[in-house]
Amino acid sequence: MMREMTGAEMVMQALIDQGVEHMFGYPGGAVLPIYDAMFHQNQVKHILVRHEQGAVHMAEGYARSSGKVGVVLVTSGPGATNAVTGLTDALLDSIPLVCITGQVPTHLIGSDAFQECDTVGITRPCTKHNYLVRDINDLARVMHEAFYVAQNGRPGPVVVDIPKDVQFAKGMYVGPENIQHRTYQPRLKGDPEKIKTAVEMLAKARRPILYTGGGVINSGPEASRLLREFARLSGYPVTSTLMGLGAFPASDRQWLGMLGMHGTYEANMAMHDCDVMVCIGARFDDRITGRLDAFSPDSKKIHIDIDPSSINKNVKVDLPIIGDVKHVLEDMLTVWRGMKAEPDRRALAGWWSQIDKWRARKSLAFTTSDRIIKPQQAVKALYDQVKDKDVYITTEVGQHQMWAAQHFHFEQPNRWMTSGGLGTMGYGLPAAIGVQVAHPDSLVIDIAGEASIQMCLQEMSTALQFDLPVKIFVLNNEYMGMVRQWQDLLHGGRYSHSYSESLPDFVKLAEAYGGVGIRCSNPADLDGAIHEMINVNRPVLFDCLVDKTENVLPMIPSGKPHNEMIMPDHPEALDDAIDEEGKMLV
Amino acid sequence: MPPVIEPAERHTLSMLVDNEPGVLARIVGLFSGRGYNIDSLTVSEVSHASHLSRITVVTTGAPPIIEQIKSQLDRLVPVHRVVDLTVVGKAVERELALIKVRGKGELRQEALLIADSFRARTVDTTLESFVFEITGKPEKIDQFVSLLEPLGLVEVSRTGVAAIGRGAEGM
C-alpha cells in the first residue's frame, strides 16, 4: 500500500497496520501532530498516564500478559528521560516495546532548544535498538522495522525518535508487507547435532534438573506446553527463575518451586547436586547462581538461549544450543521419541527420594500469630481466595515481591508480571493497569509494599479514569523491608533511612483518588477484607498492616553457594552469614 | 577452588556495519558500558552504494571476555558481521603515523638517519623540524617513536590499526 500522508498520520497508520489496539502515553509540544492524527481515528485506543515511567511499565504489563508488543508515546526532553527507567527495565527483562518519542524539529537539534535532549544518545544503552528519523521517506519503514526488531529474537524495547517537522512533512507511506530487515535475522532453530547430543546427555542423566526462565514465557504459550510435555515424558524435576514462574504448573509434583537467593531448599539443593542441568531460556543471573565458583560443581550444563551473548557470560556451559525455546524443545521431543529414550528409572527414583527429603525441610514455612498478620500469611490468604479465578499478579520490588513469588502459585504462563532484572520499585501498579487494559474482565492484583507503591502511585488516577479495577494489595511493614533486612545482615541493624516515615493514610488516599480504601491489621479479619477487595469492581488500595520484623527466608547469603542456605528454622544464622567478600556483592 | 584466571590476549576484530548515524557510538558505548578495552579503533566507509562501513577494533581480554565481546557486537542490529582476525589466521595489520620532531645540528641528522632506516617518508620540512610519515605494524611504529624521543619528538598522530585477512576469501 502506497499513499501520501503526513509523518504523524504515518505513525498512526503504521500502528494500525501492526495490529496495535492500545497505547500508553502523555502529550507534549513535540508530539502534538501525532496526538492530532490520533484524534482522527478510533482504532488505536490511547491510555493517558500521569507520568511517562508509568506509561512504559503499563506497556510492559500489557506486553507480558498478552504476548503483544507494548506501545508508548511520549514527548521530547523530560518525556523521553522519564521513560528511561521503564525502557531499561524492559531491556533487562526482554519485554517487546515500541516507544515513540517526539523530538524538536531537525533544524533545532543540537541547539539546546526547549525540551530538547539527545534521546537516541540517552537511550542507546537501554534499548535493543533505537532510531532518529530525520527524513519523512524513512519513517514508515522505520516504524515497521521497530516492531520487527522489538519482537523477533530476544525481545526488547525499541525507541523511534521523530522530530516535529518530520511529523508535519508529507511523504509516501508503505505498509508492513515486504519489509525485510537487512541484517537482523535471529536464529530460531537449534543445531540438530547439538540437540541430539543434549537428548543423549539428558537420557543418561542420573540426577537431572530442568532450570527454566523468562525465555520460556517469551517464546509463547506453546513453549510452556512443550516444557510440560518434556517434563512429563522424562519425569525430571523442574525449577524456574523469578521471571519464568507459570511456565510450569506449581501444582505439579515435579515442580520444585523457584530457585536462587530466595528460592526453595529443594530447588537449590537439586541445582547444586545435579549431574545434568538444562537451562532453558534463563541466563545464570547472580540471583540464581550464588557464589559462581561453587555453582553446581559436578554437573554437565546444557544452555538453550536465543541470544548467543547469554552463552558462557557468567557460567561456562558444556553444550550451548542457540535457538528459540519453542523450536528447540519441539526438536528435543522429536529426537527423544525417535530414539525411544528411556531414563534410568532406578537412578531417577533415588534422585526423587533425595529431593523429597529436601522438600520435607519445608523451607517456606512460617509461623502465624493471632495478634499480627504475617506477610507470608497475607499472600497465602490472598492466593487461597483467588486461585480459581482468572487472575493476574504484578508486584513492586522488595520483600513483598519475594513473598509473592514464594507463596502465590502459578499454573499458567503470562500470569506473573514482576521487575526481575532491573528491580524497579514502582513497577507493579502501572504494570497492573497495563495488564487490566489487555484483560478487562480479569482480576488483576498488584502485590505491593508501602514504600514501592509510592513510587508510581499517581497512576491510581489513570486506573480511575479508564475504569480499570486493579487491586493494590500493600504489605505494609513501615519499612523498606529488603533494605532493612540487608542492614540487619551487613550493617549491624543500623536502619539508616529505611523506615517509612510520614506514611500517608492509604485508605483516605484511595478515597481521594475516587477509589476504595480497605485497611486490615487483625489476622481474624483478613479473609473477610480480601473477600471485600476482590468483589469490588473498582480500583482498591488495600493497606494490610503486617509484622514489621519479618525477614525473607530461606536465603542464600551473598557470596555463598546453593548448599549453604539460611533456613527459617534457624534464622539466627543470618547474623554472621556474610563474609567480607560477600559484603561487596549486592 | 579458586577461579581460573586466564591471561589476557590481544585480538583484532573486524566488523561490517551499516553506515548510519550513531553506529560508532553504539559500538564504543558497548565497550565502555561493559568495561571492555579498546586498544585501537579505526572506522571508514568501504562501500558507498550499500552504505557499509568497516570498523577494526584491537582489544585485549581473557578468551571468555573476547567471546563475550564478539557476541555482544554481533547482536547489535546494524552490525552485519564480526570476524576475529586473530582467530581466523595471520591477518595483515597496518597502521600509519605522522611524527613531528624538532631540533638542529646533530640531532636533526640523527633523526633523518633513523627515519631512513625505518623507511619513513619526510612529508614536511622546516629549518628546525621534520614531519615523518611511517606505515607498518604498530610495534614498528612504537619502536620508531621511542627512538625519536630523545631527538626532539614534538607530537605523534596515529591512525590505529587497519586489518584484513590473508588469502582469497573476503569477510
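qc> Chain B has two domains: 9-89, 92-164.
qc> done
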